[in-house]
Amino acid sequence: MEDTFVNSHDYDDIIDLPHHVSPSRPHMPKIDRAAQFAPFSALSGFGAAIRETGRQTEARIELSEDARDALDEKLRMIRKADHPEVVITYFHPDDRKDGGCYITASGCIVKIDDYDRVFVMEDGTEIPIGEIIELEIKE
């Protein structure tokens, strides 16, 4: 059986002609040409809303009275030290939904800002004192 596509010579007269370029219309950029073939989303933003709803956050931990007292004692020790090296675990609230995440930072405290109630670490990180749940002073 003979293959009609391989032996077809119907377009031999135009195959070597130059590509047509319109003199009145500008050439469309590749990104715009690709957008023509992108899938259509009838509910724009719906996928992002679903991903945001599925994103997990942690609840804030309430410290017991004993844990708060121990933390307050460590905070007093930090105020007496000169640039103490610490490991701090603190709560970082989420901007978009209830809850947040716990972050552990380590390094030297270079400033205690009593007005804003934050520790300023050597890398510039500001840690709110009221959000600290665990504090370890390295020696």
> Rounded to an integer, what's the Rg over CA atoms?
32 Å
Helix content: 10-25%
The secondary structure category is alpha+beta
Order of helices and strands: HHHEEEEE
Distance between the termini: 87 Å
Shape designation: elongated
Q: What integer is the average pLDDT? A: 86
* Fraction of residues in β-strands: 25-35%
Tally the beta strands: 5
For the largest beta-sheet, the strand count, sense and barrel status come to: 5 strands, antiparallel
Model regions low in confidence, pLDDT < 50 over at least 5 residues: none
Number of helices: 3
User: Major sheet: order of its strands?
Assistant: 4-3-2-1-5
Compile the SSE list and pairings.
Elements (H helix, E strand, L loop, with lengths): L29 H6 L10 H9 L10 H16 L4 E9 L6 E14 L4 E4 L4 E3 L3 E6 L2
Antiparallel strand pairs: 1-2, 1-5, 2-3, 3-4
Please tell me about this protein's structure:
The structure is a single chain. This protein is of the alpha+beta class and 139 residues long. The chain has a domain of 55 residues. Helix content is 22%, strand content 26%. The protein contains three helices and five strands, in the order αααβββββ. The chain has a five-stranded antiparallel beta sheet, covered by helices on one side. A hairpin with a 6-residue loop joins strand 1 and strand 2. The chain is elongated, with a radius of gyration of 32 Å.
